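Go through this pair.

…
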Amino acid sequence: MTGPNISQTQRTLGYLLRHAYECLSEQVYGSLAARGFADIRRAHSNVFRHIAAGGSRVSDLAERAHMTKQGMAYLVESLAGLGYLEVMPDPADGRAKLARLTVRGDAASRELVRLSREAEETFAAALPPGDMERLRGQLEGLVAKMGARGA
């Protein structure tokens, strides 16, 4: 028998935050294909969300995304094969791999942020005036008190 899970019936904060994120993610990645990036999948957000402007070690990306190094390496190799990343030995440690956005990867990253802002505007329109600003402020305060932890 299938029915609501415990999180859904208990309406935990985790469920509410995750559900809102999943709705936002669906809107963003649903729109991404029409913007010329049909080959990017939701799983790739673990790279785009955590990569530093000048590039990041694959092991650091894995740690920030709370993934295994092998899982992150798979995503990085996938994005490199699609032309979004370049992967090279880390100049500071030749044993480590450094992933860096290509021009196409940078364009995709900027589009993901733009689409996220559009999704936020859609969410705001579904709420009474001022509620999104209050929600954002409360979440910013919560994150500040908890610590960024690799955001």
Remarks:
- Residues 7-123 form a domain with the Arc Repressor Mutant, subunit A fold (CATH 1.10.10.10).
- The chain is about 60% helix and 10% strand.
- Helices lie at 6-10, 13-32, 45-48, 58-65, 69-81, 103-125, 131-146.
